[in-house]
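Standup notes
- DV: blocked on the single-chain target, sequence here:
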Amino acid sequence: GAALAAVRICRSEEGPQLFARVLANARYLHAGLSQLGFHVVAPTRLADGTEIVTPVVPVVVGDDWKAGLLWKALYQAGVFVNTALHPAVPPAGALLRTSVMASHDETTLDEALEIFGRVKRAFEAEHGPLPTG
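- DV (later): unblocked, structure below
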């Protein structure tokens, strides 16, 4: 039922605008996290130069324990992300999976980025540096 509802939204009159908005939000979050010094996985580039951007913006943390601790710190600060730990990712490839929706606005994304920056500073002061992009 959820998949059918999603297809109906995609095929609706507002579907193309929603699709464009979610991808614009993904680019915005990707740029903001990169500016904060996070190692954000680069979008896939096709042979013709087209970039594939998705609503999931992965942030590489590397160490499984650090990923868990950073996840918890972000959660306690009000931002929910998913974690991917080994064996779901290669050894030393732990990451946080941030995601955006078309309904997010820049104010909400800016608030999340501010929290990411604050948590990163406190986290690195206690646990050492995170990987940079």
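- Follow-up: The chain is about 50% helix and 15% strand.
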